[in-house]
């Protein structure tokens, strides 16, 4: 699996992401600077988390208008797999590759802790290694993770099976107590209509080895590798 990691000033999870990809059996990703205009031939484009441009304007808004993004859109439209995590998810919504928006956390505080996610669908190139309904542990670290979409968009996301992860309690219940940021319907990750672009707020790349508390995040990277091998 050949992959590219897009780097903006202020991004801080690129090494974690590269490690997760390699641990899952992928090759070391090519790091692509945001001012470049063309991606190398790749199977996967990753937009890692962090604080691109210091979160000025809105999280991800400036990064979304970087020169390289024209080619990211072209690759996404051509069916290449695109993964955006945390700030990467914010960038994808700002680019219009994913619907909705990530607003300030409901309590206006930065949240940094482990959360549980319920895997809502395994019929994707990002989650085929999980069981439907499985709860996985991953960390969140963000100030603007409060997902919002209008009722029509939400109905489409639900109807088309594009809500991939929801914040859940240990027994899989979806309620307010397990929602770290006020996201509508506890949504933590969504897909585009074609199914090749995933955005999620939690950081699966930071739960890939036991020293980190769990290996639950590795499944996303293994799923992408498996999907590409069978494609
Ligand atoms: N870890 C991250 O990617 C954080 C994203 C963004 N800077 C926020 O605080 O919401």
Automatic annotation (TrEMBL):
EC number: 6.3.5.3, 3.5.1.2
Stored InterPro entries: Class_I_gatase-like (IPR029062), PRibForGlyAmidine_synth_PurQ (IPR010075)
SUPFAM superfamilies per record: Class I glutamine amidotransferase-like (SSF52317)
Subcellular localization, as worded in the UniProt entry: Cytoplasm
Active site: 86 (nucleophile), 203, 205
Catalytic activity line of the entry: L-glutamine + H2O = L-glutamate + NH4(+); N(2)-formyl-N(1)-(5-phospho-beta-D-ribosyl)glycinamide + L-glutamine + ATP + H2O = 2-formamido-N(1)-(5-O-phospho-beta-D-ribosyl)acetamidine + L-glutamate + ADP + phosphate + H(+)
Biological pathway: Purine metabolism; IMP biosynthesis via de novo pathway; 5-amino-1-(5-phospho-D-ribosyl)imidazole from N(2)-formyl-N(1)-(5-phospho-D-ribosyl)glycinamide: step 1/2
Keywords linked to the UniProt accession: ATP-binding, Cytoplasm, Glutamine amidotransferase, Hydrolase, Ligase, Nucleotide-binding, Purine biosynthesis
Molecular function, one GO term: ATP binding
Gene Ontology CC terms, in alphabetical order: cytoplasm
GO terms classed as biological process: 'de novo' IMP biosynthetic process
PANTHER family: PHOSPHORIBOSYLFORMYLGLYCINAMIDINE SYNTHASE SUBUNIT PURQ (PTHR47552:SF1)
Role noted for this protein: Part of the phosphoribosylformylglycinamidine synthase complex involved in the purines biosynthetic pathway. Catalyzes the ATP-dependent conversion of formylglycinamide ribonucleotide (FGAR) and glutamine to yield formylglycinamidine ribonucleotide (FGAM) and glutamate. The FGAM synthase complex is composed of three subunits. PurQ produces an ammonia molecule by converting glutamine to glutamate. PurL transfers the ammonia molecule to FGAR to form FGAM in an ATP-dependent manner.
Summary of subunit composition and partner proteins: Part of the FGAM synthase complex composed of 1 PurL, 1 PurQ and 2 PurS subunits.
NCBIfam families the UniProt entry points to: FGAM_synth_I, PRK03619.1
Name used for this protein in its record: Phosphoribosylformylglycinamidine synthase subunit PurQ
Native source organism of the sequence: Microbaculum marinum
